[in-house]
Amino acid sequence: MDEPSPSYPHTQQRGPEPTIEEDSETETYQDLEDPVIKEIPIILKSTDPSERLLLLQYPGRPSTRPFTEKNRILEAREKVSTDVIEVDVPIDTTRFYDPLKNDNWGVVNKQTLRGVMNDSDGYYVASVQNGELVLVPVSKSAQMRPAFNYIDKEVADKKEVSRLENGSNGNGHANSSVQVVQMTVKSTVDNAPRLGGALLARKKADEEDFVHLNWNDLNDDETKNARETALTVENKHELNSSTTNDEYINLLVQETIVE
């Protein structure tokens, strides 16, 4: 009896799988999950070198409590060469205030905030005007933190009193003990200060005098006029980026790579 020949599963050859080519350059806004609904022209205003736009930041002060109105800046001053800036702000004497310390330090009702101004490349003040984004570059910025000058003064006064007391014998006469002084000759190079870095910067700042700055409150007419002048653009030059989307993404990726 003939046995039936074995049957094998029938296979069918299929052609290559269809591929979907995505071209990021030709991708339309409608295909994006977050489409662009409006484009805003960017206007970069050129500033006068003689004018400065300073950004003062207050890390210890919440944005809900700005230094305006009854808490307005009392006085401002700067050291031009060393870029040190100080402002005096009022103190709320009804909260966390010790009148005994006030008598010792002479703080009265104000506190001094100090900062060092640094160049601020890439910082701008922005304003949307008539559908255009106007950018004004910031000259310098500083983070303002409390300066305890009154404590430094108290320490200096105590040292001076101690020096005067140690300079006498207790009866008002200066100490007349004989001291041997050795004279040496040094060149001007040897006498030159050897401070560097932060110590040298601090020494220069201490030796420089402050220059008074006129300060106007946020809602003063002078401030409103200055704001309008700073943000007014007469000759508009629209910025057009020459960077493609792929180039921009590559720049972002390169910045996140840690070598």
UniProtKB/TrEMBL annotation:
Residues 1-32 are annotated as: Disordered. Residues 19-32 have a biased composition (Acidic residues). Pfam families: RPC5. PANTHER family: DNA-DIRECTED RNA POLYMERASE III SUBUNIT RPC5, DNA-DIRECTED RNA POLYMERASES III 80 KDA POLYPEPTIDE RNA POLYMERASE III SUBUNIT 5. GO terms for cellular component: RNA polymerase III complex. One of its GO terms (biological process) is tRNA transcription by RNA polymerase III. It comes from the Eukaryota. Coiled coil: none annotated. This is DNA-directed RNA polymerase III subunit RPC5. Signal peptide: none annotated.
